[in-house]
Amino acid sequence: MMNNRLQRFLAAKTYAVAGASNRQHKYGNQVFRALIAAGRETYPLNPAQDEIEGHRAYPSIADLPLVPEAISIITPPEVTRRVIADAIAAGVQHIWMQPGAEDEQASESARAAGINVIDDGSCILVLLARQS
């Protein structure tokens, strides 16, 4: 049974993946492809890439053509802090820190801003696989 926070994340209409990558073995690439495959409107965030899997990549949330409702984060914790500060400023509603990306301070700020935060070590790939 899926908990409410996960359901709310997956009910979002638009997504961004921070730490999306062109390297197919990388977690950021797999999460991005899984969201696209699940029919979700998803934008890759990666300041070092122009394009990921044929989709235009964006350096940061502020550069996106819209504010995504949900963001999946696959970055080292020090980058996660910056992504979450951007997400709070932009008005993102749901944040899912994938295992290894978690930062307690960032989680606390996001929760204080009223954001639905998932940082319990659960993996979006497992969930999307179950849904398809």
UniProtKB/TrEMBL annotation:
Transmembrane segments: none
InterPro entries: CoA-bd (IPR003781), NAD(P)-bd_dom_sf (IPR036291)
Highest taxon listed in the record's lineage: Bacteria
Positions of the CoA-binding domain: 9-101
Pfam families xrefs: CoA_binding_2
Protein name: CoA-binding domain-containing protein
Species: Novipirellula aureliae
